[in-house]
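new request in #modeling-help
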Amino acid sequence: MDFKDYYTIMGVKRDASQDEIKRAYRKLARKYHPDVSKEADAEIRFKEVGEAYEVLKDPEKRTAYDQLGANWKAGQDFNPPPDWNAGFEFNGGGFTGGNASDYSDFFESLFGQGFANAQTGYQQPGYHAHGNDHHAKVLIDLEDAYRGASRSITLQAPEVDNNGHVVTKQRTLNVKIPKGVKQGQRIRLSGQGSPGMGQGQAGDLYLEIEFKPHSLYKVEGHDVYLDLPITPWEAALGATVKVPTPDGPVDLKIAKGTTSGRKLRLKARGIPGKPAGDLYVVAKITLPPADNDAATELYKKMEQELAYNPRSQMGV
Amino acid sequence: MKQTTLNGLLLDEHTELSLNDLCRACSTSAEWIIELVDEGVLEPVVYQQTQWRFSANSLQKAQTAMRLQRDLGINLAGIALALDLLDEIETLQRRLNRIELNDEY
Protein backbone atom coordinates (compact mmCIF):
# COMPACT_ATOMS: atom_id res chain seq x y z
CA MET A 1 0.00 0.00 0.00
CA ASP A 2 1.31 3.44 -0.89
CA PHE A 3 1.78 6.11 1.71
CA LYS A 4 -0.26 9.24 1.03
CA ASP A 5 1.12 12.62 2.00
CA TYR A 6 -2.04 14.51 2.83
CA TYR A 7 -0.18 17.74 3.47
CA THR A 8 1.39 17.74 0.00
CA ILE A 9 -1.93 16.88 -1.60
CA MET A 10 -3.48 19.89 0.13
CA GLY A 11 -0.46 22.07 -0.56
CA VAL A 12 -0.07 23.13 3.08
CA LYS A 13 2.77 22.93 5.59
CA ARG A 14 2.68 20.31 8.31
CA ASP A 15 2.11 23.00 10.92
CA ALA A 16 -0.74 24.66 9.01
CA SER A 17 -3.62 25.91 11.15
CA GLN A 18 -7.07 24.37 10.84
CA ASP A 19 -8.19 27.59 9.13
CA GLU A 20 -5.41 27.36 6.56
CA ILE A 21 -6.35 23.77 5.86
CA LYS A 22 -9.96 24.71 5.38
CA ARG A 23 -9.06 27.51 3.00
CA ALA A 24 -6.77 25.23 0.99
CA TYR A 25 -9.52 22.65 0.78
CA ARG A 26 -12.14 25.13 -0.41
CA LYS A 27 -9.83 26.37 -3.12
CA LEU A 28 -8.83 22.91 -4.35
CA ALA A 29 -12.38 21.58 -4.18
CA ARG A 30 -13.57 24.38 -6.44
CA LYS A 31 -10.65 23.85 -8.78
CA TYR A 32 -11.10 20.11 -9.20
CA HIS A 33 -14.84 19.67 -8.78
CA PRO A 34 -15.80 17.29 -11.61
CA ASP A 35 -18.85 19.38 -12.52
CA VAL A 36 -16.76 22.50 -12.91
CA SER A 37 -13.25 21.48 -13.86
CA LYS A 38 -12.22 20.71 -17.40
CA GLU A 39 -9.02 18.97 -16.35
CA ALA A 40 -8.79 15.35 -17.40
CA ASP A 41 -7.91 13.96 -13.98
CA ALA A 42 -10.27 16.25 -12.07
CA GLU A 43 -12.29 13.44 -10.53
CA ILE A 44 -9.23 11.62 -9.20
CA ARG A 45 -7.75 14.83 -7.80
CA PHE A 46 -11.06 15.82 -6.24
CA LYS A 47 -11.34 12.51 -4.41
CA GLU A 48 -7.75 12.73 -3.28
CA VAL A 49 -8.27 16.21 -1.89
CA GLY A 50 -11.50 15.11 -0.22
CA GLU A 51 -9.72 12.23 1.48
CA ALA A 52 -6.86 14.46 2.63
CA TYR A 53 -9.32 16.97 4.05
CA GLU A 54 -11.26 14.22 5.77
CA VAL A 55 -8.17 13.49 7.85
CA LEU A 56 -6.65 16.94 8.30
CA LYS A 57 -9.85 18.79 9.22
CA ASP A 58 -10.50 16.45 12.12
CA PRO A 59 -8.05 17.17 14.96
CA GLU A 60 -8.31 13.57 16.21
CA LYS A 61 -7.47 12.03 12.86
CA ARG A 62 -4.85 14.65 12.11
CA THR A 63 -3.01 14.01 15.37
CA ALA A 64 -3.11 10.28 14.69
CA TYR A 65 -1.82 10.82 11.16
CA ASP A 66 0.95 13.08 12.42
CA GLN A 67 2.07 10.26 14.75
CA LEU A 68 3.24 8.36 11.70
CA GLY A 69 6.05 10.89 11.46
CA ALA A 70 7.22 13.35 8.85
CA ASN A 71 9.69 11.06 7.13
CA TRP A 72 7.30 9.24 4.88
CA LYS A 73 7.29 10.03 1.18
CA ALA A 74 4.21 9.85 -0.99
CA GLY A 75 4.02 6.55 -2.83
CA GLN A 76 6.38 4.80 -0.40
CA ASP A 77 5.26 1.29 0.56
CA PHE A 78 3.42 1.58 3.82
CA ASN A 79 1.97 -0.62 6.52
CA PRO A 80 0.62 0.90 9.70
CA PRO A 81 2.55 -0.04 12.85
CA PRO A 82 0.57 -2.77 14.67
CA ASP A 83 -0.52 -0.58 17.58
CA TRP A 84 -0.31 2.77 15.84
CA ASN A 85 -3.69 4.08 16.91
CA ALA A 86 -3.69 2.68 20.43
CA GLY A 87 -4.85 5.38 22.74
CA PHE A 88 -6.82 7.25 20.15
CA GLU A 89 -10.52 7.29 20.20
CA PHE A 90 -12.40 8.01 17.05
CA ASN A 91 -15.96 8.99 17.44
CA GLY A 92 -16.73 8.22 13.82
CA GLY A 93 -19.24 10.51 12.21
CA GLY A 94 -18.38 13.95 10.98
CA PHE A 95 -17.49 12.76 7.52
CA THR A 96 -17.96 15.13 4.66
CA GLY A 97 -20.61 14.12 2.20
CA GLY A 98 -18.03 12.64 -0.17
CA ASN A 99 -18.51 9.00 -0.96
CA ALA A 100 -16.37 7.22 1.60
CA SER A 101 -16.09 4.08 -0.49
CA ASP A 102 -13.86 6.15 -2.79
CA TYR A 103 -11.18 6.56 -0.16
CA SER A 104 -7.87 4.85 -0.67
CA ASP A 105 -6.65 1.63 0.94
CA PHE A 106 -4.24 3.82 2.85
CA PHE A 107 -7.12 5.72 4.46
CA GLU A 108 -8.97 2.47 5.04
CA SER A 109 -6.03 0.91 6.88
CA LEU A 110 -5.69 3.88 9.22
CA PHE A 111 -9.26 4.86 9.91
CA GLY A 112 -11.23 1.94 8.53
CA GLN A 113 -12.33 0.35 11.78
CA GLY A 114 -13.88 3.35 13.43
CA PHE A 115 -15.38 4.28 10.15
CA ALA A 116 -17.09 0.93 9.57
CA ASN A 117 -18.73 1.14 12.97
CA ALA A 118 -19.97 4.62 12.34
CA GLN A 119 -21.45 3.47 9.06
CA THR A 120 -23.44 0.51 10.29
CA GLY A 121 -24.85 2.40 13.23
CA TYR A 122 -28.00 3.46 11.50
CA GLN A 123 -29.19 0.10 10.24
CA GLN A 124 -31.86 -0.48 12.82
CA PRO A 125 -34.52 -3.12 12.32
CA GLY A 126 -37.51 -1.80 10.49
CA TYR A 127 -35.39 0.62 8.51
CA HIS A 128 -36.31 0.85 4.84
CA ALA A 129 -34.52 2.78 2.20
CA HIS A 130 -34.17 2.94 -1.53
CA GLY A 131 -31.05 1.27 -2.82
CA ASN A 132 -28.36 3.52 -4.22
CA ASP A 133 -28.49 4.60 -7.82
CA HIS A 134 -25.54 3.55 -9.94
CA HIS A 135 -23.97 5.51 -12.77
CA ALA A 136 -21.94 4.18 -15.67
CA LYS A 137 -20.82 5.25 -19.12
CA VAL A 138 -21.57 3.31 -22.24
CA LEU A 139 -19.46 3.80 -25.37
CA ILE A 140 -21.33 3.56 -28.66
CA ASP A 141 -20.58 4.17 -32.31
CA LEU A 142 -22.12 7.14 -34.06
CA GLU A 143 -23.84 4.69 -36.39
CA ASP A 144 -25.67 3.20 -33.37
CA ALA A 145 -27.31 6.57 -32.76
CA TYR A 146 -28.58 6.56 -36.37
CA ARG A 147 -30.03 3.06 -36.30
CA GLY A 148 -30.44 2.07 -32.70
CA ALA A 149 -28.52 -0.89 -31.33
CA SER A 150 -28.23 -3.39 -28.59
CA ARG A 151 -25.11 -3.18 -26.44
CA SER A 152 -23.79 -5.57 -23.90
CA ILE A 153 -22.11 -3.79 -21.01
CA THR A 154 -20.13 -5.19 -18.13
CA LEU A 155 -20.35 -3.41 -14.81
CA GLN A 156 -18.29 -3.84 -11.70
CA ALA A 157 -19.70 -2.85 -8.37
CA PRO A 158 -18.46 -3.42 -4.84
CA GLU A 159 -20.81 -5.54 -2.79
CA VAL A 160 -20.74 -6.78 0.77
CA ASP A 161 -20.89 -10.57 0.90
CA ASN A 162 -22.37 -12.72 3.67
CA ASN A 163 -19.17 -12.59 5.72
CA GLY A 164 -19.09 -8.83 5.65
CA HIS A 165 -16.21 -8.63 3.13
CA VAL A 166 -16.31 -6.20 0.27
CA VAL A 167 -16.05 -8.07 -3.01
CA THR A 168 -16.16 -6.75 -6.56
CA LYS A 169 -19.02 -8.29 -8.40
CA GLN A 170 -19.29 -8.34 -12.16
CA ARG A 171 -22.47 -8.43 -14.10
CA THR A 172 -23.32 -8.11 -17.75
CA LEU A 173 -26.39 -6.36 -19.03
CA ASN A 174 -27.82 -6.20 -22.51
CA VAL A 175 -29.17 -2.75 -23.10
CA LYS A 176 -31.11 -1.34 -25.98
CA ILE A 177 -29.65 1.90 -27.33
CA PRO A 178 -32.58 3.82 -28.79
CA LYS A 179 -32.27 5.51 -32.17
CA GLY A 180 -31.53 9.22 -31.89
CA VAL A 181 -29.44 9.27 -28.68
CA LYS A 182 -26.99 12.10 -28.29
CA GLN A 183 -23.64 12.49 -26.59
CA GLY A 184 -24.07 12.97 -22.84
CA GLN A 185 -27.68 11.82 -22.71
CA ARG A 186 -28.62 9.30 -20.13
CA ILE A 187 -30.70 6.17 -20.08
CA ARG A 188 -32.37 5.10 -16.87
CA LEU A 189 -32.75 1.42 -16.11
CA SER A 190 -35.18 1.10 -13.24
CA GLY A 191 -34.29 -1.28 -10.46
CA GLN A 192 -30.77 -2.07 -11.79
CA GLY A 193 -28.95 -0.18 -9.02
CA SER A 194 -28.19 -1.44 -5.52
CA PRO A 195 -30.83 -3.50 -3.75
CA GLY A 196 -32.89 -1.56 -1.23
CA MET A 197 -32.72 -2.00 2.53
CA GLY A 198 -35.64 -3.60 4.27
CA GLN A 199 -38.60 -3.24 1.98
CA GLY A 200 -37.08 -0.32 0.10
CA GLN A 201 -36.99 -0.55 -3.67
CA ALA A 202 -33.80 -1.17 -5.57
CA GLY A 203 -31.99 1.86 -6.95
CA ASP A 204 -31.73 2.71 -10.63
CA LEU A 205 -28.87 2.44 -13.05
CA TYR A 206 -28.05 5.51 -15.14
CA LEU A 207 -26.09 4.99 -18.32
CA GLU A 208 -24.43 8.00 -19.86
CA ILE A 209 -24.04 7.83 -23.63
CA GLU A 210 -20.60 8.57 -24.98
CA PHE A 211 -19.67 8.34 -28.65
CA LYS A 212 -16.43 6.67 -29.60
CA PRO A 213 -14.23 9.10 -31.53
CA HIS A 214 -14.93 8.61 -35.23
CA SER A 215 -12.30 8.79 -37.96
CA LEU A 216 -14.59 10.76 -40.31
CA TYR A 217 -17.28 12.54 -38.33
CA LYS A 218 -17.42 15.06 -35.53
CA VAL A 219 -20.61 15.36 -33.53
CA GLU A 220 -22.07 18.46 -31.91
CA GLY A 221 -25.41 17.96 -30.25
CA HIS A 222 -27.49 16.38 -32.97
CA ASP A 223 -25.48 17.85 -35.85
CA VAL A 224 -22.69 15.92 -37.51
CA TYR A 225 -19.68 17.41 -39.33
CA LEU A 226 -17.66 15.81 -42.09
CA ASP A 227 -14.51 17.15 -43.73
CA LEU A 228 -14.75 16.40 -47.44
CA PRO A 229 -11.59 16.58 -49.53
CA ILE A 230 -12.25 17.86 -53.07
CA THR A 231 -9.98 18.54 -56.04
CA PRO A 232 -9.25 22.07 -57.33
CA TRP A 233 -11.14 21.33 -60.57
CA GLU A 234 -14.18 20.01 -58.70
CA ALA A 235 -14.15 23.20 -56.65
CA ALA A 236 -13.64 25.47 -59.65
CA LEU A 237 -15.91 23.80 -62.17
CA GLY A 238 -18.52 22.21 -59.94
CA ALA A 239 -19.15 18.47 -59.75
CA THR A 240 -21.29 15.77 -58.25
CA VAL A 241 -19.32 13.57 -55.86
CA LYS A 242 -20.05 10.60 -53.63
CA VAL A 243 -20.04 11.50 -49.94
CA PRO A 244 -20.14 9.06 -47.03
CA THR A 245 -22.74 9.61 -44.32
CA PRO A 246 -23.34 7.47 -41.23
CA ASP A 247 -26.49 6.33 -43.03
CA GLY A 248 -24.72 5.30 -46.23
CA PRO A 249 -23.21 7.20 -49.18
CA VAL A 250 -25.09 9.97 -50.98
CA ASP A 251 -24.43 12.04 -54.11
CA LEU A 252 -23.59 15.64 -53.34
CA LYS A 253 -23.49 18.52 -55.78
CA ILE A 254 -20.46 20.78 -55.40
CA ALA A 255 -21.30 24.22 -56.73
CA LYS A 256 -19.05 25.94 -59.26
CA GLY A 257 -16.52 28.13 -57.44
CA THR A 258 -16.69 26.39 -54.06
CA THR A 259 -14.06 27.68 -51.66
CA SER A 260 -12.20 25.72 -49.02
CA GLY A 261 -13.99 25.73 -45.67
CA ARG A 262 -17.40 26.22 -47.24
CA LYS A 263 -20.10 24.37 -45.33
CA LEU A 264 -22.77 22.44 -47.20
CA ARG A 265 -25.78 21.45 -45.15
CA LEU A 266 -27.53 18.15 -45.72
CA LYS A 267 -30.79 18.70 -43.95
CA ALA A 268 -31.98 16.04 -41.50
CA ARG A 269 -29.01 13.76 -42.19
CA GLY A 270 -27.58 14.30 -38.72
CA ILE A 271 -28.69 12.26 -35.73
CA PRO A 272 -32.36 11.33 -36.19
CA GLY A 273 -35.02 12.74 -33.87
CA LYS A 274 -37.64 15.43 -33.61
CA PRO A 275 -36.21 17.60 -34.99
CA ALA A 276 -33.46 15.61 -36.69
CA GLY A 277 -29.97 17.04 -36.78
CA ASP A 278 -28.18 18.14 -39.94
CA LEU A 279 -25.06 16.84 -41.58
CA TYR A 280 -22.56 19.57 -42.45
CA VAL A 281 -20.07 18.76 -45.17
CA VAL A 282 -17.05 21.05 -44.97
CA ALA A 283 -15.25 21.34 -48.31
CA LYS A 284 -11.51 20.99 -48.12
CA ILE A 285 -9.62 21.62 -51.36
CA THR A 286 -6.56 19.41 -51.69
CA LEU A 287 -3.75 19.91 -54.16
CA PRO A 288 -2.37 17.11 -56.28
CA PRO A 289 1.41 17.02 -55.72
CA ALA A 290 3.70 18.20 -58.49
CA ASP A 291 5.79 15.06 -58.19
CA ASN A 292 6.19 14.16 -61.85
CA ASP A 293 6.91 15.97 -65.10
CA ALA A 294 3.35 15.96 -66.38
CA ALA A 295 1.95 17.48 -63.16
CA THR A 296 4.73 20.05 -63.00
CA GLU A 297 3.99 21.04 -66.60
CA LEU A 298 0.31 21.53 -65.82
CA TYR A 299 1.04 23.76 -62.83
CA LYS A 300 3.48 25.81 -64.90
CA LYS A 301 0.88 26.16 -67.61
CA MET A 302 -1.67 27.42 -65.11
CA GLU A 303 0.84 29.89 -63.77
CA GLN A 304 1.47 31.27 -67.23
CA GLU A 305 -2.08 31.30 -68.52
CA LEU A 306 -4.28 32.12 -65.53
CA ALA A 307 -2.49 35.26 -64.35
CA TYR A 308 -3.97 34.68 -60.91
CA ASN A 309 -2.67 36.65 -57.92
CA PRO A 310 -4.59 35.92 -54.71
CA ARG A 311 -2.61 38.70 -52.94
CA SER A 312 -3.55 41.49 -55.31
CA GLN A 313 -5.64 43.23 -52.62
CA MET A 314 -2.80 43.22 -50.11
CA GLY A 315 -0.78 46.04 -51.61
CA VAL A 316 2.34 43.92 -52.12
CA MET B 1 -27.09 -18.16 -20.96
CA LYS B 2 -29.68 -16.28 -22.94
CA GLN B 3 -30.05 -12.72 -21.82
CA THR B 4 -32.98 -10.44 -22.24
CA THR B 5 -32.32 -7.01 -23.59
CA LEU B 6 -33.25 -4.25 -21.18
CA ASN B 7 -35.22 -1.32 -22.45
CA GLY B 8 -34.28 1.79 -20.54
CA LEU B 9 -35.93 5.17 -20.46
CA LEU B 10 -34.04 7.70 -22.57
CA LEU B 11 -33.81 10.89 -20.55
CA ASP B 12 -34.06 13.44 -23.34
CA GLU B 13 -35.97 16.70 -23.65
CA HIS B 14 -39.12 14.83 -24.68
CA THR B 15 -39.25 12.71 -21.53
CA GLU B 16 -41.14 14.10 -18.57
CA LEU B 17 -40.46 13.32 -14.95
CA SER B 18 -42.68 13.95 -11.96
CA LEU B 19 -41.57 15.83 -8.87
CA ASN B 20 -41.43 12.47 -7.15
CA ASP B 21 -39.15 10.98 -9.83
CA LEU B 22 -36.76 13.89 -9.42
CA CYS B 23 -36.69 13.65 -5.63
CA ARG B 24 -35.97 9.97 -5.79
CA ALA B 25 -33.26 10.24 -8.42
CA CYS B 26 -31.51 12.95 -6.39
CA SER B 27 -32.30 11.29 -3.02
CA THR B 28 -33.63 14.57 -1.79
CA SER B 29 -36.81 16.13 -0.48
CA ALA B 30 -39.55 17.80 -2.50
CA GLU B 31 -38.77 21.01 -0.58
CA TRP B 32 -35.28 21.14 -1.98
CA ILE B 33 -36.51 20.66 -5.55
CA ILE B 34 -39.12 23.38 -4.97
CA GLU B 35 -36.36 25.71 -3.78
CA LEU B 36 -34.50 25.04 -7.04
CA VAL B 37 -37.65 25.95 -8.95
CA ASP B 38 -38.07 29.13 -6.89
CA GLU B 39 -34.49 30.06 -7.65
CA GLY B 40 -35.14 29.55 -11.38
CA VAL B 41 -32.64 26.69 -11.66
CA LEU B 42 -35.32 24.23 -12.72
CA GLU B 43 -38.40 25.03 -14.75
CA PRO B 44 -41.32 22.64 -14.75
CA VAL B 45 -42.79 22.10 -18.21
CA VAL B 46 -46.22 21.54 -16.72
CA TYR B 47 -46.92 23.96 -13.93
CA GLN B 48 -50.03 22.92 -12.06
CA GLN B 49 -50.36 23.01 -8.31
CA THR B 50 -50.07 19.29 -7.59
CA GLN B 51 -48.86 18.10 -10.96
CA TRP B 52 -45.44 19.47 -11.70
CA ARG B 53 -43.73 17.75 -14.61
CA PHE B 54 -40.11 18.34 -15.50
CA SER B 55 -38.18 17.70 -18.68
CA ALA B 56 -35.62 14.98 -18.15
CA ASN B 57 -32.84 17.52 -18.70
CA SER B 58 -33.76 18.84 -15.27
CA LEU B 59 -32.47 15.67 -13.68
CA GLN B 60 -28.89 16.31 -14.70
CA LYS B 61 -29.19 19.89 -13.52
CA ALA B 62 -30.65 18.92 -10.17
CA GLN B 63 -27.94 16.33 -9.62
CA THR B 64 -25.20 18.81 -10.48
CA ALA B 65 -26.82 21.32 -8.11
CA MET B 66 -26.87 18.66 -5.43
CA ARG B 67 -23.16 17.91 -5.83
CA LEU B 68 -22.21 21.60 -5.87
CA GLN B 69 -24.09 22.17 -2.64
CA ARG B 70 -22.75 19.06 -0.96
CA ASP B 71 -19.13 19.29 -2.08
CA LEU B 72 -18.52 23.04 -2.22
CA GLY B 73 -21.10 24.37 0.22
CA ILE B 74 -22.58 26.77 -2.34
CA ASN B 75 -25.98 28.27 -1.58
CA LEU B 76 -28.86 28.19 -4.06
CA ALA B 77 -28.22 31.61 -5.58
CA GLY B 78 -24.59 30.63 -6.09
CA ILE B 79 -25.61 27.32 -7.62
CA ALA B 80 -27.95 29.11 -10.03
CA LEU B 81 -25.12 31.43 -11.05
CA ALA B 82 -22.60 28.59 -11.41
CA LEU B 83 -24.97 26.55 -13.58
CA ASP B 84 -25.66 29.54 -15.85
CA LEU B 85 -21.96 30.18 -16.24
CA LEU B 86 -21.23 26.51 -16.89
CA ASP B 87 -23.89 26.53 -19.62
CA GLU B 88 -22.33 29.60 -21.15
CA ILE B 89 -18.86 28.06 -21.08
CA GLU B 90 -20.22 25.00 -22.83
CA THR B 91 -21.85 27.10 -25.55
CA LEU B 92 -18.66 29.08 -26.06
CA GLN B 93 -16.56 25.92 -26.07
CA ARG B 94 -18.79 24.48 -28.78
CA ARG B 95 -18.44 27.60 -30.89
CA LEU B 96 -14.70 27.57 -30.36
CA ASN B 97 -14.50 23.94 -31.48
CA ARG B 98 -16.40 24.80 -34.61
CA ILE B 99 -14.20 27.77 -35.41
CA GLU B 100 -11.07 25.72 -34.83
CA LEU B 101 -12.52 23.09 -37.14
CA ASN B 102 -12.83 25.69 -39.90
CA ASP B 103 -9.40 27.11 -39.19
CA GLU B 104 -7.66 23.97 -40.25
CA TYR B 105 -7.74 25.00 -43.89
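bot summary: The mean pLDDT of chain B is 84.
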